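Tokens as discussed.
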């Protein structure tokens, strides 16, 4: 697996939410630790690099009745 920030070796995939959007990102242990620290004291600047490098997670489909003809 490749680290999405620097192209190095990634050890884990993390999912996080920022700005109302969900992201997945592959990171080395060092970058994963930095992301966890940024999430503990979130700031737009600290999380922006991870959101740019991460992959958006598609929103879940809503369940329920569809409107229209049947």
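Sequence:
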């Amino acid at each position: 697996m490749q680290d999405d920030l620097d192209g190095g070796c990634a050890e884990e995939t993390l999912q996080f939410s920022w700005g109302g959007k969900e992201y997945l990102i592959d990171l080395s242990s060092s970058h994963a630790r930095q992301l966890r620290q940024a999430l503990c004291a979130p700031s737009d600047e600290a999380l922006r690099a991870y959101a740019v490098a991460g992959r958006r997670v598609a929103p879940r489909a809503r369940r329920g009745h569809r409107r229209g003809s049947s």
